[in-house]
Amino acid sequence: QVQLVESGGGLVQPGGSLRLSCAGSGFAFDRWGMTWVRQAPGKEREFVSSISTDGTTSYADSVKGQFTISKDKAKDTVYLQMNSLKTEDTAMYYCAAGQGSLPYWGQGTQVTVS
To answer: Strand 18-25 and strand 3-7: pairing?
Structure first.
């Protein structure tokens, strides 16, 4: 059974930092790219960042230079380091297995910047 469990969200002041984690199980984690997606209240889900199996990263323009995605294959975990947080970064953050096509999703972790 595929599971993705996010953690690390919370309430932070503008300018602060958070590191989100997403632990995967039930699938060959090192054979999948991983993606972070967020959804703010009243808005559609939007791509945040992804990392491919070879470590190639991609970011939405809105978070480039602010967020960093990384992957620890030994721990089957993907991270999203978020710095200089802004109120507009407030959203539910989801990790998903895949890139483009995202067949597996976690339950999300709430990030509130206020």
So the answer is: antiparallel
